[in-house]
Amino acid sequence: MHKPIMIINISNSIQCNLIVTEDAKKIYKRYEIHSITLGEDVVAESWSSAVDFAEISNLFNKNALIQGIKYQLNEVHYELVLADKQPPKLAIVIKNHDTDDYNFYDFTKVETLLIYNKLTKILNKCDFGGNA
After folding, report:
1. Which domains does the chain have, with CATH numbers?
2. Residue 110: helix, strand or coil by DSSP?
3. Which of 18, 38, 58, 60 is deepest in the core (most CB within 10 A)?
4. Reported pTM
């Protein structure tokens, strides 16, 4: 049986895709992470990897990332980018396995704060799921 997917837009480029399960009497709904996508790239396919993605945003907001260190979680690379007279950014690099090209994204502190806040609200409503 095919379960419906609920799509929640987190930002212009990030979507959270949830599997929705209702009981037979439709009294309650349960939610499970199907995936989180960044553009065309999948950055998370489980509750646990979704938490990792949210926490990287949180660490960036708390100034806990170190410049020059490349962080990798679930085949997604993260890096703090500091440039003269520019606000800091969180750079995200994802390899496209079909073409061996790389997709690059970057986010400001305001954007990552919104991403973190929205994702944690969603994750708090979700079941851990089979891939936790």
Report:
1. 5-127 (3.30.2450)
2. helix
3. 60
4. 0.87
